[in-house]
Specification:
Mean pLDDT: 88
Subcellular location: Membrane
Distance between the termini: 47 Å
Shape: flat
Radius of gyration: 24 Å
Protein name: Arthropsin
Largest sheet: 2 strands, antiparallel
Family: Belongs to the G-protein coupled receptor 1 family.
Number of helices: 5
InterPro entries: GPCR_opsins, GPCR_Rhodpsn, GPCR_Rhodpsn_7TM
Structural class: mainly alpha
GO molecular function: G protein-coupled receptor activity
Strand content: 5-15%
Length: 137
């Protein structure tokens, strides 16, 4: 997280945009009022890394949460207020497994969004594919 914060806040210290007092002069922020090509490029950089990327990750995680827990919630709702005959062992077990396995989804999403992790997985899978092909011969 410290590296990410440095990526976001260091550019004005290095000459890409600058920090100025804002509003009632009680805090500082990057100079978003000066319309230069450099400031606009820095704004796009901040918008992408500081807003769009986190929002995409958050929306993905919320969607996974809803996908994981909605079937389980529906089955339990039917169990409490609906026709109990509709709750079979399969309709009770599958949503429960899927919902309770949701603890593994966050690390997968964060892992897949990290470029080093993706390249390591690709390297690992290609090595095992090579070994599997060699063993078949």
């Amino acid at each position: 997280i410290w590296f990410y914060c440095a990526l976001m806040s260091a550019p004005p210290l290095l000459g890409w945009s600058r920090y100025i007092a804002e509003g009632f002069l009680t805090s500082c922020s990057w100079d978003y009022l000066t319309r230069t090509p450099a400031n606009r490029a820095y704004y796009i950089y901040l918008l992408t890394l500081g807003f769009v990327a986190p929002v995409c990750i958050i929306l993905t995680l919320v969607l996974l949460f809803l996908t994981s827990w909605t079937p389980y919630s529906v089955v339990s709702l039917i169990g409490q207020f609906g026709d109990i005959q509709r709750v079979t062992p399969w309709t009770a077990t599958l949503p429960a497994i899927f919902a309770k396995a949701s603890v593994i989804y966050n690390p997968i999403v964060y892992g897949l969004s990290h470029p080093h992790f993706r390249s390591s997985v690709r390297q690992y899978l290609s090595a095992h594919k090579t070994i599997a092909n060699w063993e078949r011969k």
